[in-house]
Amino acid sequence: MEIIKVEGLSKSFGKLQVLENVSFNVNQGEVIAILGPSGSGKSTLLRCVTHLELVDKGSISLTGMNMVKDGVYAHAEELRKICLKVGLVFQNFNLFPHFSVMRNITEAQVHVLGRKKEDAAERARILLEKTGLSDKAQSYPCELSGGQQQRVSIARALALDPEVLFFDEPTSALDPELTGDILKVIRDLASEMMTMVIVTHEIPFAREVADRVLFMDGGSFIEEGPAAELIDAPRLERTKAFLARLKRG
Prior knowledge:
Elements (H helix, E strand, L loop, with lengths): L1 E12 L2 E12 L3 E5 L6 H8 L7 E6 L2 E5 L2 E2 L2 H8 L2 E4 L11 H11 L5 H14 L15 H14 L4 E5 L10 H13 L3 E5 L3 H7 L2 E6 L2 E7 H6 L4 H12 L1
Parallel strand pairs: 3-9, 3-10, 7-8, 8-9
Antiparallel strand pairs: 1-2, 1-4, 4-5, 5-6, 10-11
Helix pairs in contact: 3-4, 3-5, 4-5, 5-6
């Protein structure tokens, strides 16, 4: 079942064309890794698909519902329903610093989904256990390591029960020694058939966990294929050069 369909997406900031005629699809339970150099449009694409940026042209549908069709957006109530189907985990955590871990995870459940506080707290406890943070429920973000904060961000996104989870370079703000726990959580989600789109520079991880890899350059996808096939034997010289540079580290 196709859960995401993007067709002919374009986005500019002033005279800067960031996305140009981008099209791709994601099936339910599929994990997609998006690779590409800085400035190629990866983060902007995620922000457009999660409705944090407005597109100039193109269409986006999620679970069969049109967020935007030929550049025209759905009405407000329809957009709200669609946006609840997606979650986004940012590079830099974006936790509320004055809220405890528990409140960071329960706040949107109560005010966006309308859950009772006790039900939201129970959902939060389950997710904190899942992400290895059961003992941090009453801690504040400033008391956590970067890796712990990112795991709280993942738990917060999952708390709204999204059908698709987007990750924007989830380990880029972390020291290499802190990335392992984040990647383990994502691996576990993949094993549970969570539909995910992951912008990452972690090539071995992308090869292991992704079903397909899309390579972006200059605001467009220029090569795609099964993860191991594209990473081990890319067809285009541009893709080869990018992967070789990353592998040299």
